[in-house]
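Q&A FORM
Asked by: J.P.
Topic: structure of DUF6788 domain-containing protein

PROVIDED:
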Amino acid sequence: MSYEPPTPPSELPTDVVDTLNEYSPELLRHVARYAEELAEYREREARLAEEDDEDEIEERPEDLPDDVPSKATITIKEINDNRYYYWQWREGEKVRSKYKGPVSPDD
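REPLIED BY: S.T.
REPLY: Here is the structure written out as tokens.
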């Protein structure tokens, strides 16, 4: 671990860097967690929107429950420092989820 402060990415706006530099380590960890979850959410939304545009019917996975549509994708959610798989799909404007199981440490 370096004793020098990290160099912010060039893509990060200066005002964001200045704001983050004022935060406590605890608040920075909250921001990091939120930013990661927000990035996953936006990627998932984009992926679901892309899949809505595709009219292809894919094969239904063997472990897909009967009440989950075949267009569902698997996502990982972190809850209380534990990671879990969830089936996720879009119904109109809403994103629906159904628990699949815990993420094994080998994954």
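FOLLOW-UP: The chain has one domain: 14-102.
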